[in-house]
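re: ur question from yesterday

yeah so i grabbed the chain u mentioned. its 216 aa long if i counted rite. heres the sequnce exactly as i have it in my notes:
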Amino acid sequence: MHVANSFQVKETRDARSTDEILQMYEPQSRDINRFLGQLAMFHLTEMRGYEYDLDSIIGWRDTTSRIGEGSFGEVYRVQVQGKGTETPAALKLGVYPYDITTTETAWDFLKEEDNLRKLQGEHIVEYYGTACRREGGGLRLGLVMELCDGTLGDRIVGNRNHNPAWWGADPEKQAAAFSYTQNLAVQLCEGLKTIHDAGYIHKDLKVINILESLMN
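ran it thru and got these structure tokens back, copy pasting raw so excuse formatting
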């Protein structure tokens, strides 16, 4: 029985080339992705609420409030309303062609939002909620998060007092800088552990992507 089964596996092994497999399944993959996008867009427009009205957030229209930017989005220093008070926050908005969420981008947005909601911990940037504004052709969606004071690059590369490499001739200042960086390294490892324990990998770990909170 064992021999027969082994022979059958060998005989039925897929002999198609990679190109043949892609030609057969790529159209199906595109159809599935399009359907997922339609479902995600229906969910975003018809089945859920949002923590924030984008129009009520102060600062995102002001280019001087922009504190970060990348290929897919920009981050603004804003003020959000909460229980009668204004709270400083960071707002991430997509840039063209991701500025307006449509069926082509809705599934990716939901995945990013879901990641932020699931990742919680002392050394993880706090996620406050999602802001929405309905516009022609789709939704303008923003991710509202804890406002941090700067990056690890600002704190170490841009500050000699926090960089042990500057103080080879001054043991006292070098020890103080090592103490500072050691504390941050421990917190960084704890943050990474939270991410890994949740089943995620960072993929882009560098000093400009590591934020330091206002409360240190």
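noticed a couple things. The domain at 1-146 is CATH 3.30.200.20 (Phosphorylase Kinase; domain 1). also Residues 18-46 form the longest helix (29 residues).
anyway ttyl
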